[in-house]
Amino acid sequence: MTHTSVGSTARVLGAGLRALLALTLLCGVVYPLAVTGIAQTLFRDRADGSEIKDASGQVVGSSLIGQRYDLPPEKGEEPPAPDLRWFQPRPSRGLGTNSVNTRYELILSGATNRSGDDPELIRWVREAKAAVVKDNSTATYRVGPDDVPPDAVTSSGSGLDPHISPAYAALQVHRVADRNGLAVRKVEHLVEEHTTGRLLGFLGEPRVNVLELNTALRDAVRG
Length: 223
Description:
Strand order of the largest sheet: 3-5-4
Radius of gyration: 26 Å
Number of strands: 5
Largest sheet: 3 strands, antiparallel
Low-confidence stretches: 94-102
Helix content: 40-55%
């Protein structure tokens, strides 16, 4: 009886070990390699993180995640001032700061969930509008409060939106041209080239990917 019991236990353990090894091989090796192979073959750009590269082939970021374009912060300065040579993204404040992704003021992806009459949100919007008016007015081009589009003063639902509206991009053209010593028409052309229309002609809104636009701007300045 003891011999039979030990034999049965050994068979059960052996079967379990074989199942473990088979499932480990199937789920831990074969399946990931198959999925990776399919992704690299059919969706290479997306599988690699939707990377954006500059003219030299260097990866500068992802087309799906927003970035900030700030000057190095001065001692004790909080937050750092925007680098006005570049097109600026939507505001990212509202969810706190972090030490991991210091390029964006976010702990996680999400909205502020503040009501439209929240006093702090109203203050943020007013401050952001005043800054947009001031920063984008040049000696030959004046921006008024009524010229500022909503996405220039509010963060997106995810807080990570890499796009801005064509209206916000157009508002920044004169300042960018002035700061980089470029013709206004040349910068306008860059915006036009990097404006994406509605999906299928009717879904969503026209948009401009800020990282793609700034990458093209850098290449234009260097060229």
